[in-house]
Amino acid sequence: MATIKIKQVRSAIKRPARQKKTIIALGFSRLNQVIEKEATPQILGMIKKVEHLVQVVD
Length: 58
What we know:
This protein is an alpha+beta fold. The protein is built from 2 helices and 3 strands.
């Protein structure tokens, strides 16, 4: 599978608990952190749920 790099660009403070849990489940622990994940349908769905907090990096 292809991999994608994701960067957290906005804080999860004052966000619903569901969005906070999604950010943690993606593997983020701090702001401006870049992680690399496989582009599975589950991961892409999680990114879609918090697309206002993260950015896909090339």
